[in-house]
Design goal:
heterodimer, A: 358 residues, alpha+beta, Ubiquitin-like (UB roll), Alpha-Beta Plaits, N-terminal domain of TfIIb, 5-stranded mixed beta sheet, 3-stranded antiparallel beta sheet, B: 525 residues, alpha/beta, Dimethylsulfoxide Reductase, domain 2, Rossmann fold, Barwin-like endoglucanases, 3 domains, 6-stranded mixed beta sheet, 17% strand
């Protein structure tokens, strides 16, 4: 009895659900793909793009699956001919409003969503004349976030992520219809708003209207984008990130939506302050101090011998308690482990610390 | 943290003290914002009117260095109004009778006289936290960087113990760690008091274990902290191996630090840039950076995650573990024949009880929070459930002490230091990231607008800021984030070396410097 009261039927299959789930969430679990544009699983459902509509038996008009709660005994069809026709028409309308559909995937995590759907539904028909509903803010000279609103489809994901996830409320939607614009308070540039440049709006934008300016610097590099999962190098929260590379170049960062500590969130440092890695100031060779008192580049053998010899001499002259190791809270744990082992295995002391006292 | 980050969305009362979380741990702060949006009450105690204070339900603007007094006043109210969790205290703690007797003398009115926070607000904070179903405490360096840092932490523990806000979902004592792997550095044993996995060096069985593992006699006594080592440079410390720390800029009392490093006979620095500290070294080794090396880091909630190499290192740069192991091998130390980070990490797991259930492959997806005592263990998101590690939670009787230096005729203004959202520490990294300059290009001394006027200054003017240890020149910014009589600057910019001023005193137990309190004088330039 209990089992029966918590199931519904999706495309002929009986599926269990828990109270509070939406039809969209149940369909996702049942691997019935439903297209969306205004949906981000981290945000409250919004129900504006209407792509996720499904047919529920006994209900006259199709309903938005992202906002409709699952109910016992519902019989749902996610992909009827009428629904698919409706979705194609909607996408044709969306395309008619946009300057450009194909955008560089460097623009952001979700930037290919519209392109992918338009291709799946073959919606590049030019059936509608349309008019652009957003105006790009080329005057905003911030180095991080491109505000290319000519590509905006008014899905409000940027506004919602800023409010619901970040609590910053830096941007809002103003106007209606073709006059609708995503703006800041007083229509200013982002720097003069409460924007913290966390980049969350960029990463949720499904059309690339908001884009990662730093990553786009690598748009002309021919090689494909590869992603490597790692952890942000800054504070102790431990946000999981994907490092985007083209060949041997680190070109950008995207948040890991399944990162256990951050669940897709990042801050300005984790999102945009990555390029110290390949900065020209990086040390590339060992250095030793010469008789002239200056540091000079040398080979590894010379430098390692010199380093070891110095410790040997100090230990011989002053004893094993004259040597001290300082490990780092910035290196991986293997470096810290080796440092403490160097001191303990080498000298039998506990003359070892890290930078946590400063 | 005693509790995981996801728990930040679950308390009904949140008490943040000495944490500028929206700037220093912004992603964690987003969880607090959600909790507040869902109806949790937020109490914020901080000398500065930071962003967290702006979103709080109750803001307690305490004078720098007066945390113990505030917390005693709150404990007094919790005891007086019967908001203590008797069952919890009897079942799980020890020393509560003496502690409750102790706090009876510290009325909120007394606390107001020390902290400057109105007694009524102290009472309100105590009532909310004391009566909460799930009360959680979050703190950062605003609690620890004082001569009474340990007392501050212990005072917070007392509050959690007397109310039973520990060992359950959505509660706890939660320090936010400031560096990506500072937790891992402690886990790995890079501290003077513990072998890897927090095994105390002064326990004979641990000593015997590591003598066998490392094949040599080990000291039975704790080592000395870095603070003492720098003090002893040229006297009894003559060589240092420093990995990935810009000691000179990040540590207190910069002049003292420079003298110390120069007094060494041998200094070896491993880093990714030629930092101010590396410039003083006899040998500098180029290390691989983040994104260029495989490894492991532990976050503030004790979560162990893998770092992965995405790009090749520049020139001849090598991983830190390899460099240290090579020096060790050239000194004839055995046990350093590692061929990968995986080898090193697996050795760490094999001798640390808190990592005993882990190895390189098991942490692939970052799902474990230590302790993980054996292979079938799921990890420990919430500490102290059912039982404390050492049996009972111990109350400590704490009394208020003044900071090492207090304001005087010569130095009449409180300086407190900290960090800013857009820069990280000494800017060796963020200072080299394109675009950060657009958001934050220089350091400014934050002063209350009325103080600016009454001290004969103007917004944007340069001034000389002096303490008992030295002077720096800095540009002034008017902001009511600073309270009257207290000014703020970060230590990020090398051209405004704020740590020339700091270093008035150290906590006697941790030897952490009192970086949050420094009496200064300001002169217009």
């Amino acid at each position: 009895m209990i089992q029966k009261s918590t199931t519904l039927t999706i495309d002929g299959a009986e599926v269990a659900f828990t109270e509070g789930e939406t039809l969209y969430e149940v369909a996702q679990r049942a691997r019935r793909p439903i297209p969306t544009l205004c949906y981000d699983p981290r945000l409250e459902p919004f129900g504006s793009c209407r792509l996720c509509v499904v047919q529920v038996e006994g209900v006259r008009n199709p309903v938005a699956s992202c906002t409709t709660p699952a109910a016992a005994g519902m019989v749902v069809h996610t992909s009827t001919e009428a629904i698919e026709h409706h979705r194609t028409t909607l996408l044709e309308l969306v395309v008619s409003e946009n300057r450009q559909v194909d955008v560089d995937p460097l623009r952001g995590y979700a930037s290919q969503e519209l392109t992918t759907l338009v291709d799946r539904y073959q919606a590049r028909t030019g059936r509608f004349a349309g008019a652009q509903s957003g105006t790009s803010h080329s005057e905003d000279d911030n180095p991080f976030i491109l505000r290319d609103y000519d590509l905006c489809i008014s899905c409000n994901r940027c506004v919602r992520v800023c409010a619901e996830r970040e609590g910053d409320y830096a941007i809002a939607a103003g106007g209606r219809g073709f006059q609708k614009q995503i703006t800041t308070e007083f229509d200013s540039i982002l720097k003069d708003s409460s924007c913290t440049f966390c980049g969350q709006c960029v990463q949720t934008c499904p059309t690339g209207a908001l884009a990662d300016k730093k990553a786009l610097r690598a748009a002309d590099i021919e090689e494909p984008i590869e992603k490597t999962r790692s952890v942000c190098p800054y504070c102790g929260v431990g946000c999981a990130v994907d490092l985007m590379t083209k060949g041997e170049q680190l070109v950008g960062i995207q948040p890991a939506m399944d990162g256990p500590a951050n669940e897709g969130a990042l801050c300005v440092k984790g999102q945009f302050a990555f390029d110290f890695v390949q900065h020209r100031d990086r040390l590339k060779q060992p250095l030793v101090r010469g008789v002239d008192g200056q540091l000079h580049e040398t080979d590894w053998d010379t430098a390692l011998d010199r380093a070891a010899e110095g410790f040997r001499q100090v230990a011989d002259k002053h004893g094993r308690h004259a040597i001290y190791g300082v490990a780092s809270g910035r290196t991986p744990s293997e470096a810290d482990y080796c440092m403490q082992k160097f001191i303990r295995r080498g000298y039998g002391t506990h003359y070892i610390d890290n930078c946590s006292r400063a | 943290m005693s509790n995981p980050l996801v728990d930040m969305e679950k308390p009904d009362v949140i008490f943040c003290i000495g944490t500028n979380m929206t700037e220093c741990h912004p992603v964690a702060a987003t969880r607090l914002k959600k909790a507040v949006a869902n109806g949790a009450k937020l109490i914020v105690a901080d000398p500065r009117r930071i962003a967290l204070a702006e979103m709080s339900d109750l803001y307690l603007p305490l004078r720098v260095g007066s945390d113990v007094a505030l917390l005693l006043g709150m404990a007094h109210v919790i005891e007086r109004e019967g908001l203590v969790d008797d069952a919890f205290m009897h079942e799980r703690t020890a020393g509560f009778e003496e502690y409750l007797e102790h706090v009876r003398q510290f009325t909120p009115q007394w606390a107001e006289s020390i902290t400057g926070v109105p007694a009524a607000d102290i009472e309100q904070a105590a009532r909310w936290y004391g009566a909460a179903e799930r009360g959680a405490i979050y703190y950062t360096l605003g609690i620890t960087e004082h001569i009474c840092g340990v007392d501050n932490v212990q005072s917070l523990c007392n509050l959690a113990l007397m109310t039973g806000h520990i060992g359950r979902e959505g509660t706890g004592i939660n320090p936010m760690r400031g560096q990506n792997n500072i937790q891992g550095a402690g886990d790995a044993g890079a501290v003077p008091s513990n072998y890897p996995g927090f095994q105390a060096v002064d326990q004979p069985d641990n000593q015997a274990k590591f003598e066998k593992l490392y094949g040599r006699p080990m000291d039975a006594e704790k080592g000395i902290t870095k603070v003492r080592a720098l003090e002893g440079a040229g006297e009894h410390i003559f060589a240092m191996l420093i990995d990935g720390e810009n000691t000179l800029v990040s540590d207190p009392d910069r002049k003292h630090c420079e003298r110390a490093l120069n007094a060494l006979e041998h200094l070896v620095v491993i880093d990714i840039f030629l930092t101010e500290t590396a410039e003083l070294a006899d040998v500098v080794f180029p290390a691989t950076s983040w994104a260029e090396t495989d490894g492991v880091s532990t976050n503030t909630e004790r979560r162990i995650q893998r770092l992965r190499q995405a790009v090749p290192p520049p020139g001849q740069a090598k991983p830190d573990w390899w460099i240290i192991s090579q020096i060790a091998q050239r000194l004839g130390f055995d046990g350093f024949e590692y061929s990968s980070a995986k080898d090193v990490f697996n050795e760490l797991c094999s001798l640390s009880p808190i990592y005993a259930g882990l190895d390189w492959d098991r942490i692939e997806h970052g799902q474990y929070q230590w302790p993980v005592p054996h292979k079938d263990h799921p990890g420990t998101p919430i500490l102290h459930q059912g039982e404390f590690k050492n049996g009972r939670g111990l109350f400590k009787v704490i009394s208020y002490r003044d900071p090492a230096e207090t304001i005087s005729e010569e130095f009449p203004i409180w300086l407190t230091t900290g960090r800013r959202l857009q820069s990280y520490h000494t800017r060796t990294q963020t200072g080299r990231a394109q675009g950060i300059e657009y958001l934050l290009s220089e350091e400014r001394l934050e002063i209350h607008p009325e103080d600016i006027a009454s001290w004969g200054l103007k917004d944007g003017q340069w001034c000389r800021l002096s303490s008992a240890r030295g002077s720096v020149e800095i540009c002034v910014r008017a902001t009511d984030r600073s309270p009257r009589g207290t000014v703020f600057a970060s230590f990020s910019f090398n051209d405004v070396p704020i740590n020339i001023l700091t270093g008035s005193g150290y906590d006697p137990i941790t030897e952490t410097a009192e970086l949050k309190v420094c009496p200064v004088r300001i002169e217009a330039l």
